[in-house]
Amino acid sequence: MQDMLKGNTKCLRANPYPGRLIVQGLCPDPRYAFQFYAIMGRSDNSRNRIFVADKEAHGDLHTDAFDPSKVKDPSLIIYQAMAESDGIYVVSNGIQTPVVLEAIRANYDIEGELHQRGITYEPDAPNHTPRITGAIVAGSRTAYFLTQRRGNDGEEARDFFETILTEPGTGYCFHTYLGNSEEDDPLPSFNISPYPLWIEHADPTANLHAMFNLLIGKNLVSMASKIIDLEGKTPSQLVIRNLNCHASAH
């Protein structure tokens, strides 16, 4: 298992541009779960972003413009990235975050709810960036992983995975782009199962630093690390780091 985790880490390190990336799973202390989200960008519009923690709703996170005067198209870069309620924790790279949260709360079919609302991969040709979503339900220790991408036939393809978190120190990683060449045009969409990575700590700052060291040099823009008490005894802990302004916030 350790060899596989190390191999997966090497593969991620070798990918020059994963795009947007989510990791979620169990901390080494299995009382706690972990969610991590990173955004990367190559265009000026994509790089002009920061994470902002919501002051009104604990644990919620949204993107904002670092320099509002330089925003060209806010529709795909400004969104709620993390949301939580009633022991449900959702992280995503777009407008689907609150939709998935409400679908789980209401026991609706997640894929069906997204389809009904017309939420699919992003309309940013030629890449058609996938929408990726992760969710953890604390009470049942259930984790969901959903990728909505453009299929080879041009239609939407969905990859949906559901698992019970049982392996301490193991997180499952998935991201928007799969290719190993920054010259790929269009960028190949992530179309495989989420792969396991080693999660070293039950501390959001330590895990954020570990992921930073793994991802630095890949056009990294902002990162967020959250620790979730699966027993519900303490509030979630959220730490963010914005490389635009070299600032961290809790």
Summarize the structure.
The chain has helices at residues 2-14, 44-47, 97-105, 110-116, 204-215; strands at 20-26, 32-40, 49-53, 61-65, 80-85, 88-92, 131-137, 142-150, 156-164, 170-175, 195-198, 220-229, 237-242, 247-249. The chain is α+β, with helices and mostly antiparallel strands and 250 residues long. The strands form 2 sheets. It has a 7-stranded antiparallel sheet with strand order 11-10-1-2-12-13-14. A 7-stranded antiparallel sheet has the order 3-4-5-6-7-8-9.
Figure out the total of helices. Answer: 5
- The backbone outline, from C-alpha atoms, is globular
The largest sheet, given as strand count, sense and whether it forms a barrel, is: 7 strands, antiparallel
Instruction: Name the helicity range.
Output: 10-25%
Distance between the termini: 33 Å
Class by SSE composition: alpha+beta
How many strand units?
Answer: 14
What is the H/E string? HEEHEEEEHHEEEEEHEEE
Low-confidence residue ranges:
246-250
Strand residue percentage: 35-45%
- What strand order characterises the main sheet? 11-10-1-2-12-13-14
Radius of gyration over all CA atoms, rounded: 17 Å
Q: Residue-averaged pLDDT, rounded?
A: 92
